[in-house]
Design brief:
By secondary structure, the chain is of the alpha/beta class. The chain has helices spanning about 25-40, 75-90, 100-105, 120-125, 140-150, 160-175, 230-250, 265-270, 285-290, 305-315, 345-355, 360-375, 380-390, and strands at about 10-15, 45-50, 60, 65-70, 110-115, 130-135, 180, 195-200, 220-225, 255-260, 275-280, 295, 320, 340. Helix 1 (about 25-40) links the parallel strand 1 and strand 2.
């Protein structure tokens, strides 16, 4: 084992909410990137446990070290209580009705356990298994606050109690952790912990890129997991506030929305807009990128860096985005040279579209986008950060 004496050999347990080989959307891509980084550590053995809800969903892949394991003690009093608590809020996955002894089968002489997000660390008390490292991603309390402001949740009964309970859980988990990784450097100042570092997001684009394809002059594109409230709330606001005027100024424009899980009421509402097409899940994204004029990311909330922006840039497409959509990228780097056009209101949005209509200018920005991502967001940086942090962090006994 090597946490305190360099990394000669190391056994790592990685507990993640999704299969690390899945790169469909942003959250899955983050899991994949962290897994690849852990597997790159010399002489490290990585065991991945993906908790699933039912025994029939279990899969054991010895070759890749990926185990889909049911840790639910279904229909026990603790499990029923835990389900009732989760109905109150999906943020609360409590350590009730969990078969933690089953999880211990995977931790024989493990040196470190890494939790992808806060919830698994709390639900399975992962700090009891080995020194705990957490890939925090979104800071739950701040994400909760932003979501509440946007949806009016803060006016509902018991909001203050739920917010207090969420903060209590988050603080307890952080206190048990040896080290925290956050994807946005600015967020390091928002958390009180003695050992933290920035582990930025990177994209897993459907290569090859299309920066040499000029695309159409009328297709705008959004790609994201549509069951995620930050995505559908942002798009709903964009369509309500800007699309009708954009369509008047650019009558031939179409807006293609890609991603699975969109609540039906939004799908019904959005298809009433002229030129808006809700495509759902699309297996091959490359033709959509190739034909698009640009990618729109009108995000209003979210804490982690926006992987959908990085993917679009890596594919060679200009991104027209709000500042929140470009979180994780320093403001001074959000320039047309790097394929990023920021907008706050309709005036900036229209100016960005006019700039894109210049084919020569668009090609320049597309080439700059690919170069920017390659230089600043690489798997090699992830690998070295994980290796150095695991090597140097002083563990709690």
């Amino acid at each position: 084992m090597g946490l305190n004496n360099g990394i000669d050999t190391m056994k790592i347990l990685f507990v993640a909410p999704t299969d690390p080989r899945d790169t469909t959307y942003g959250g899955q891509q983050r899991t994949h990137v962290v897994w690849k980084g852990l597997c790159s550590i010399p002489n490290a053995t990585v065991c991945v446990v993906v908790p699933v809800a039912h025994q029939f969903m279990e899969r054991f892949d010895e070759a890749d070290g990926v185990f889909r394991v049911c840790l639910e003690k279904r229909w026990t009093p603790g499990w029923i209580l835990g389900r009732l608590i989760k109905v109150v809020s999906s943020y609360f996955d409590v350590p009730l009705g969990k078969d933690i002894r089953k999880l211990r089968r995977f931790v024989d002489d493990v040196d470190v356990v890494i939790s992808r997000l806060i919830q698994p660390a709390f639900a399975y008390k992962l700090w009891e298994l080995a020194p705990l490292f957490i890939d925090v991603d979104d800071i739950q309390t701040l994400d909760w606050d932003l979501h509440a402001q946007l949806t009016g949740e803060s006016r509902k009964p018991f909001y203050r109690f739920k917010r207090w309970l969420l903060g209590l859980i988050q603080n307890q988990v952080f206190a048990k952790a040896c080290h925290l990784w956050l994807p946005v450097a600015d967020n390091l100042t928002l958390v009180n912990h003695p050992s933290m570092s920035c582990l930025p997001n990177i994209a897993c684009p459907p290569l090859p890129s299309v920066e040499n394809d000029i695309g159409s002059n009328n297709e705008l594109l959004f790609i994201g997991l549509m069951s995620s409230s930050p995505n559908y709330l942002a798009l709903d606001s964009f369509l309500c506030d800007h699309w009708k005027q954009l369509k008047l100024d650019f009558p031939t424009f179409e807006f293609l929305i890609v991603g699975s899980g969109l609540p039906e009421r939004y799908k019904v509402a959005w298809t009433q807009y002229d030129g808006v097409k809700v495509l759902g899940r699309v297996e091959d994204l490359r033709p959509l990128y190739k034909e698009s004029l640009a990618v729109i990311t009108p995000m209003l909330i979210g804490m982690g860096s926006c992987i959908k922006v990085l993917e679009a840039l890596a594919m060679g497409r200009v991104v027209v985005t709000t500042r929140r959509g470009a979180r994780g990228i320093p403001t001074e780097l959000c320039t047309s040279d790097n394929g990023i056009l920021l907008f706050d209101g309709y005036k900036e949005l229209k100016a960005s579209i006019i700039q894109l209509m210049d084919v020569k200018e668009r090609r320049r920005m597309q080439l700059g986008a690919v170069a920017f991502v390659k230089e600043n967001f690489s798997q090699e940086h992830i690998n070295s950060t994980l290796y150095n942090d695991l090597k140097t962090t002083k563990v709690k006994v």
